[in-house]
Design goal:
Elements lengths: L2 E5 L2 H8 L6 E5 L28 E2 L5 E2 L8 H12 L3 E4 L5 H14 L5 E3 L7 H9 L6 H28 L10 H17 L4 E11 L2 E10 L2 E3 L18 E2 L3 H11 L5 E12 L7 H12 L3 H13 L15 H14 L36 H4 L3 H16 L5 E12 L2 E12 L34 E11 L8 H11 L4 H13 L3 E4 L2 E4 L1 H13 L6 H16 L4 H10 L4 H9 L4 H4 L1 E2 L7 E5 L2 E8 L2 E6 L11 H12 L3 E5 L6 E7 L2 E6 L11 E3 L11 H8 L3 E5 L6 E7 L2 E7 L5 E5 L11 H9 L17 E5 L6 E7 L2 E6 L2 E4 L11 H26 L3 H19 L4
Parallel strand pairs: 1-2, 1-5, 5-6, 9-10
Antiparallel strand pairs: 3-4, 7-8, 7-14, 8-9, 8-13, 11-12, 12-13, 15-16, 17-18, 18-19, 19-20, 21-22, 22-23, 23-24, 25-26, 26-27, 27-28, 29-30, 30-31, 31-32
């Protein structure tokens, strides 16, 4: 008897193949094989004329979806149908969540098998798990499929109904989404809070003390019996002390005077309090907490974390990575406890096995937390993994093992000291027994927060002791605006509010960035002016769509549909076609939305208008001579746009740029200007004879006010030739680029080798010796778009036709295969490590044939009549427009 097993990816197929008996053939569907139409060209001819055709959902016939096989999946479907002809049984073994259930259902509908068909699910890819799953196959869960289909239809209705409205009223190419728009609103709300924030200033004293040759620090907390004000006592809306707070606010003069008065006086220990504290380990990872911790500790995006976790799962290293559950199986608990005993000893084992329960009602995507796979856990060193895969596995391994370890026992120490009428406090922490901290310490959203395993040692002190004060300084503080969201904190907020599902957070955050609603700067998600305009429009005209509580209730209804507690069709009818349904609202509101107002962002305390234009945001102000406009630089955030910035931008347009002097050699004027990409210097005036004057961006941290003539001349002289490389004889230059200052080793045909300068390096003064030092260091990250000048992730071998190398490189959209001028993306779900030369040659050949097909189509199109060409152009435009509509 022969059996065909279908999974989603080649990696998963290879891993499962190892655990199945002979007679089992495993093929990959490469993800979804069928979906709603993504463009006008995919809409079937039979329904093209229907008014609902662009939605891909027949809203007039019980929301019946129109499913199509995308062009790039037709070959795969044909191959699966061929594979099915020679077998006696079909097993659908896609992932165990709603998405996986949906893929299995679509495969069944498409393949129409005439042989017995089973649904196999498993939580990890190990021999035991696969054997057990084979014995416990079931039918496709229709309720799960219906819940996923309802979610898909709902996302399509929201995205394809609201997005075209945004194109008309604000800017082409924008998108709205059921979860995406709420997430964008969260970012905008935080940025509004930063705009409304008023800074407060306060001073206190910090003392360095010594007892028995051990130094410790103490901070002023009270004066004359009154508490000293700190950051928590300020009202963020006024920058003043909160009304009713009985605190003493010191200014600089008072703090310095107090320091002088206390210098040389006697210090006394007046009270010591020791308080025992027990810390318990965090539960094992869910999808959400893995994304959060990976972002904090490894600085990985949610998208990268899920891609890496998917690879680890499909290779059999971890259990399924889309889960809301913190539950561990008995097998996992036993494996974790065995690791603890073996690596750390019996005393580090928790007295009883720890079992965690999931608080979220929606925790139904899987039955277990993310953990190392198998009945015994491989240590990170035993896996043979490397790079980011090793880092993520290490995180998962440590978190799982730590959850079965003993509590950490600590002692918090608080020492009160008095010097004249001033009260100081010194805090310490002593770890009596590290417990689980030996294996794992949970990260913190605050980069300055101390991790829990860092002891703060105080000397042995008792009441009446008189420590020696070695230094006393007055310290000024400024209150800080609310911190912007990082990916970690945004994921945490979305989950706590019940918005969306953790399995979708990675794609949602990716869409927000890709669509230009946010920039990721130093791990912070900064909303753009476009995000403000879109959020303003949706808040005013479609408030429910961006209301977290409304979206959370929607999510709950979708969960209820999955369990059979709610009916899908009545819900969709009410949401879309009801008296207050989305279709009705859009028809009512469209005529009421003034496009000029929709493209205008109103900011508090700003007289200038901010508008969204074709080429980005700009400011507009009326003066005596009419309307003056100026582009807003891309690095100027909504929270930082103030009247002073507006004045600088407008002055450049009305009175011309500031001149820092004249070039000592040419005599031409040098200006400091501000453009779309920030401030820069320019040599000479733009004219017919000189249409492109030389320009140079200012280095990060340098403001226009700080530019000197010497600095400007140096910047305009870039690139600087530092000398030649002692080995290659090729020149080495220093220059400034889009991503900051760098050096480049130009080796001609061999390519260019780039290195970014470190914070302490100055592009205007760096020496050849320092440049050679930097070039000798291993290259980090994606430092160049030219694959010749960066190391390959893997060298697969030589192409049999031309003997040119076939390598894998890391690109801005993930790893890809390169041969000559042909680049082929690595299929989703496939890992770099598992790509063979044979697989690479297939992917390159497919890419080359697609390119040839495209060229032929283009050539034939150009030979048609003007009338046909005109229709084709219109159709092409419609296709592109449809592709822009975003979902979810």
């Amino acid at each position: 008897m022969s059996t065909l097993v279908i999974v989603e990816s080649p990696t998963k197929a290879r891993t499962i193949r190892n655990y199945l008996p002979s007679g089992y053939k495993v093929e990959a569907s490469m993800g979804h094989v069928r979906d709603l139409p993504q463009s006008a060209s995919e809409i079937p001819a039979a329904v093209k004329g229907e008014k609902w055709a662009q939605l891909g959902v027949n809203v007039d016939a019980d929301f019946e979806p129109v499913y199509v096989v995308p062009k790039d999946k037709k070959k795969i479907v044909t191959q699966l149908k061929d594979a099915l002809k020679d077998v006696d049984e079909l097993i659908l073994a896609t992932d165990e969540d709603r998405e996986g259930e949906s893929i299995s259902w679509h495969l069944y509908q498409l393949l129409k098998p005439k042989v017995p068909t089973k649904r196999m699910v498993f939580h990890e890819i190990t021999q035991d798990a696969i054997k057990k799953a084979l014995k416990n196959c079931r039918n496709i869960d229709e309720q799960l499929v219906r819940a996923q289909e309802t979610r898909r239809i709902l996302d399509r209705l929201v995205g394809y109904t609201l997005s075209p409205l945004l194109w008309k009223k604000i800017a082409w190419g924008l998108s709205a989404g059921r979860v995406q728009s709420v997430a964008v609103r969260l970012l905008v709300t935080k940025e509004r809070q930063r705009r409304a924030f008023h800074e407060g200033t306060y001073w206190d004293l910090k003392a360095s003390l010594e007892k028995d040759k051990t130094s410790f620090a103490a901070q002023l907390v009270a004066l004359g019996g009154t508490k000293i004000a700190n950051g928590g006592d300020f009202d963020a809306a006024t920058g003043q002390i909160v009304a009713g707070r009985n605190v003493l606010l010191l200014n600089e003069e008072q703090a310095v005077a107090l320091k002088e008065r206390l210098t040389g006086k006697t210090w006394n220990v007046t009270d010591i309090e020791e308080r025992p504290v027990t810390r318990k380990p965090a539960p094992p990872f869910t999808t959400s907490t893995l994304q959060q911790e990976s972002n904090r500790k490894l600085r990985l995006s949610a998208r990268d974390t899920m891609r890496i976790a998917q690879n680890l799962y499909e290779q059999g290293y971890i259990t399924y990575m889309r889960t809301d559950s913190v539950h561990l199986s008995d097998q996992a608990i036993a494996a974790a406890r065995s690791c603890v005993e073996k690596l750390y000893g019996q005393q580090y084992l928790s007295p009883q096995p720890r079992q965690y329960t999931t608080k979220s009602k929606g925790a139904q995507e899987a039955h277990e937390a993310i953990r190392p796979a198998g009945s015994t856990f491989r240590t990170p060193q035993e896996t043979g993994l490397g790079g980011r895969e090793l880092a993520v596995y290490d995180l998962i391994w440590k978190r799982t093992v730590a959850c079965q370890m003993a509590d950490s026992r600590q002692t918090q120490i608080s020492v009160q000291l008095q010097v004249e009428d001033a009260g100081f406090r010194s805090s310490g922490k002593r770890i009596e027994f590290p417990g689980y901290l030996r294996a794992y310490v949970e990260g913190s959203d605050d980069p300055e927060a101390a991790l829990e395993d860092q002891e703060v040692i105080l000397p042995s002190l008792k009441v009446g002791d008189r420590p020696n004060c070695t230094e006393l300084e007055a310290v000024g503080h400024e209150t800080q605006p609310p911190a912007r969201y990082t990916e970690a904190t945004l994921v945490k907020t979305l989950e706590s509010e019940g918005i969306g599902r953790p399995s979708t957070y990675a794609s949602i955050i990716g869409t927000i960035i890709d669509k230009g609603y946010a920039q990721l700067v130093n791990n912070a998600l900064i909303p753009t002016f476009t995000a403000f305009a879109v959020t303003d429009l949706l808040e005013k005209h479609f408030p429910d769509i961006v209301d977290p509580s409304f979206t959370s209730k929607m999510e709950q209804t979708l969960d209820d549909i999955a369990t059979g507690e709610a009916k899908w069709l009545p819900y969709l009818q009410q949401f879309y076609l009801g008296d207050k349904g989305l279709e009705t609202l859009v028809k009512e509101q469209e005529s009421q939305i003034d496009a000029t107002k929709a493209r205008t962002v109103e900011l508090e305390n700003l007289a200038a208008k901010v508008r969204i234009g074709k080429y980005g945001p700009y400011i507009e102000v009326e003066n005596g001579d009419g309307v003056v406009t100026a582009s807003i630089p891309k690095d100027l955030t909504p929270a930082d746009l103030d009247p002073k910035q507006v004045e600088v931008l407008l002055r450049q347009k009305t009175t011309g740029p500031d001149q820092v002097g004249r070039h000592p050699e040419t005599g031409e004027p040098i200006y400091v200007k501000i453009g779309a990409y920030g401030p820069y210097v320019q040599l000479g005036d733009k004219s017919e004879e000189n249409p492109k004057p030389k320009q140079a961006s200012l280095p990060k941290g340098i403001t226009p006010e700080n530019v000197t003539l010497e600095m400007a001349v140096g910047l305009l002289a870039l690139p600087r030739t530092l000398g030649t490389h002692p080995v290659t004889g090729s020149k080495i230059q220093a220059s400034l680029g889009r991503f900051g200052p760098y050096i480049v080793h130009d080796q001609g045909k061999e390519g260019k080798d780039y290195r970014s300068l470190k914070a302490a390096d100055n592009v205007l003064t760096i020496t050849l010796e320092r440049a050679l030092e930097l070039l000798s260091e291993p290259k980090k990250g994606r430092s160049s778009t030219n694959s010749k000048s960066k190391a390959a992730l893997r060298e697969l071998g030589i192409h049999p036709e031309d003997e040119e190398p076939v390598n894998i490189y890391d690109g801005p959209y993930g790893p890809y295969i390169k041969h000559g001028k042909t680049n082929a993306s690595i299929p989703e779900g496939e890992s770099v490590e598992n790509i063979t030369l044979a697989t690479a040659l297939e992917l390159l050949a497919a890419k080359a044939s697609t390119a040839k097909s495209t060229r032929k189509t283009t050539k034939s199109t150009t030979s048609k009549s003007k009338s046909t060409a005109s229709k084709s152009t219109a159709k092409s435009s419609t296709t592109a427009t449809k592709k822009k509509a975003a979902e979810g």
